[in-house]
Amino acid sequence: MSESLDPSYIGEGIYKENILDHYKHPHNQGQMKNADIKFTENNPLCGDVITVELKLSRNKIDDIKFMGRGCAISQSAMSMLSDELMGKTMQEAKSVTREKIVEMLGIEIGPVRTKCAT
Amino acid sequence: MPKTMLDIKKIRKDFPILNIKVNGKPLIYLDNAATSQKPRQVIGAMADFYQNYNSNIHRSIHKLGEEATLAYEKSHKKVADFINADFEEIVFTRGTTESINLLAYSLTQELNQGDEIIITQMEHHSNFVPWQQLAKKRNLKLKFIEIDGEGKLKLEQFSELLNKKTKIVSITHASNVLGTINPVEKIAKIVKEKSNAYFIVDGAQSVPHMPVDVKKMGCDFLAFSGHKMLGPTGIGVLYGKKELLERMQPFLYGGEMIKEVTFKDTKFNELPWKFEAGTMNIAEAIGLAAAVDYLGKIGMENVMRHGKELTNYCLRRLNEIKEVEIYGPKERSALVAFNVRNVHAHDTATILDGEGIAVRAGHHCAMPLHSVLGIPASARASFYLYNQKEEIDSLAEAIHKVIKVFK
Description:
The complex is a heterodimer of chains A (118) and B (407).
Chain A: H1 17-24, E1 37-43, E2 48-57, E3 60-69, H2 72-85, H3 90-94, H4 98-105, H5 111-117
Antiparallel strand pairs in A: 1-2, 2-3
Chain B: H1 8-13, E1 21-22, E2 25-26, E3 28-29, H2 40-53, H3 63-82, E4 90-93, H4 96-108, E5 116-120, H5 129-138, E6 141-145, H6 155-161, E7 166-172, H7 184-194, E8 198-202, H8 214-217, E9 221-225, E10 236-240, H9 242-247, E11 258-261, E12 266-268, H10 282-298, H11 300-319, E13 324-327, E14 335-340, H12 345-354, E15 357-358, E16 360-362, H13 367-373, E17 378-382, H14 389-405
Parallel strand pairs in B: 3-15, 5-6, 5-7, 7-8, 8-9
Antiparallel strand pairs in B: 1-2, 4-10, 9-10, 11-12, 13-14, 14-17, 16-17
Helix pairs in contact in B: 2-10, 3-10, 4-5, 11-14, 12-14
């Protein structure tokens, strides 16, 4: 069990350092008072639920917080996404695509796990 | 522990897929509760039908039609014998889900507002959502037998839930998450003593793994799927007592389920064809018969014993790992649902997949049960007659890898 990690193979290959880092120490996790926007999304495949809260000032995302349980992919994706969205206008935020999120994660994920990330 | 009677090496040769590699490692298939693999006997029987006597059944007056009809009817007979039922009592469906929907739609037609249906907290969505939705639509009351801390049904509570208003009791024989084997014979007796309710058993996880005798079980209906018992997808079974099926309204109307159609009315066909509208999955029925032959030759007692041996071994190996939490009672069917502490089941499954090990991860179509257990998801290893102890050793080893990655 000591072979080096081949990044192309699925297994633990997708659990790269940056992903595990975000998973173990998520950025912007928590709740806020008086959120301007709050929404909850779930993944019916695994039952994961994530709640995101946004604070806006002059149409810009001033603060973002998320809460929920999920796998390393969904949690680290949310953590990275929250960093990415901070300070953006709503218009800019809407232009963040599924592809962009996968790119941020920096891993190849198959169709089954794409739902976790996006 | 009794020695297994099965020649596993010989059995494995019948399953071509067991030779493939996944991520460069030999496939270790531990997702049998989701679907089983198929032996070449089943694949061959279906190919033989398509290559040599493909034809529609019950309507084509030619040689091929006759051969196909005979083979299709023989499939009914073989499945009937497999669970000690009569030929007319076996209706083919697409699977357990369709079998239960057939019952839910047909049986609730005769119910009145306020009538009660009892299911359990551990049901698969297939024996949950149909009842929940029809109860809403028809103003019926849906009640649940709870599970105790070990994952067994609280039977003393069941007697209290039963009353004269109870019209349907529908319970899984074996839980697809906890592995709990419910005492269906005992439950059948209680139902019959205390109510006039129909007693339905979901056999999706039991018929593939243990001898099932509907007469001994005392159920009114039994539903199960072909694809979890070495057969193809798209074919399932509804067993029903003859006198009950005769009284029931058809679920699907159309071709082949009729005796005579006039502009004014329709006379329905006799059993079991009354419930088999349209062209059925003929090749799949023939494949299921081959699966039943295969299991019959090995013997369901032997299949069960082998499953028990593997399950007990898996419980022992996983219990050795302190980071692993296991769900369900000690006595169980051939599956083990678990979680690695602080690791999501999907992450566990992904790392196991990297080792060539296929397990299921998620809520296993039992979201209400997972909410009772207080977990969003679990990983599940499930076994069948071609699995071997070495594969469980590999599973345990791979779980150590999961722990290492997430340390």
